[in-house]
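Weekly sync, protein design subgroup
Attendees: M.S., D.O., the rotation student, P.L. (late)

Item 1: inverse folding check
M.S. brought a backbone from last month's batch and wanted to see whether the design step gives back something sensible before we order anything. D.O. pointed out we never logged the input encoding, so this time it goes straight into the notes. Structure tokens as presented (252 positions):
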């Protein structure tokens, strides 16, 4: 009888899965093998039970993959993220990382088309709109001004559309492209917002000591008070740079 019981146990063992600690360990990565380590991080992230922490880890992994010139793998992670806001921030992270890596025009066209497709899939309208804003900003950082304009113009929410144009203008001004910044501001359909945008880039060019462009931007401001503050800033930076003060012109 005892022999029969033992025999039955031996027959049943293969029917039960091995315990986790009995499973063969994954091959270890070398400390400098980025490809292996990135895969290991993705596996580890997938085992995180807390959704928010898992989403955040995927977001940071997506940025690393893009910096490591693996944008397709980065984009593929977006579907694994549950929170709409984190999806939008992941789109931003991928776009900005790609802009820093100087991938080239063909690669940018492919990537930004992928990001727009991912933004379209976000089912939370505010998060979806923010994702498009981030794409336009990333395109401006990458020097794809036509793409940034097209993305912003395609946004349905007028306030966020204007914000996208404004953010693109600031990025273009920061890199010293006056004409591109003016073109972005011209697409803003709210006069007050447009004045604030012109004031902002006037300050940016003043800080860069490009006073001719700063003055040209201030000349486009319709509101007399805001124009005066732009001129005040322009003059103070040249005459009393340690004592520059301008009045409030509204947030952006």
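Designed sequence read out in the meeting:
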């Amino acid at each position: 009888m005892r022999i029969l019981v033992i025999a039955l146990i031996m027959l049943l063992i293969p029917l039960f899965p091995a315990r986790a600690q009995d499973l063969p360990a994954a091959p270890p990565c070398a400390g400098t093998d980025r490809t292996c380590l990135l895969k290991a991080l993705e596996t580890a992230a997938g085992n995180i039970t807390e959704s928010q922490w898992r989403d955040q880890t995927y977001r940071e992994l997506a940025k690393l993959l893009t910096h490591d010139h693996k944008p397709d793998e980065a984009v593929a992670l977006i579907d694994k993220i549950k929170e709409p806001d984190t999806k939008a921030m992941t789109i931003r992270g991928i776009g900005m990382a790609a802009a820093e890596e100087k991938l080239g025009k063909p690669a940018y066209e492919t990537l930004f088309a992928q990001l727009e497709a991912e933004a379209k899939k976000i089912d939370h309208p505010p998060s979806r709109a923010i994702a498009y804003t981030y794409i336009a900003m990333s395109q401006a950082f990458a020097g794809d001004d036509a793409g940034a304009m097209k993305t912003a113009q395609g946004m349905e929410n007028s306030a966020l559309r204007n914000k996208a144009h404004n953010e693109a203008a600031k990025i273009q001004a920061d890199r010293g492209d006056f004409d591109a910044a003016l073109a972005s501001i011209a697409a803003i359909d709210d006069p007050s917002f447009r004045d604030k945008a012109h004031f902002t880039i006037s300050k940016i060019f003043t800080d860069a000591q490009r006073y001719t462009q700063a003055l040209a931007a201030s000349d486009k401001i319709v509101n007399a008070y805001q124009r005066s503050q732009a001129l005040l800033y322009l003059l103070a930076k040249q005459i009393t740079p340690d004592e520059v003060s301008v009045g409030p012109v509204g947030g952006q």
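Discussion: The longest helix spans residues 84-101. The two ends are 84 Å apart (CA to CA).
Action: P.L. to compare against the previous round before Friday.
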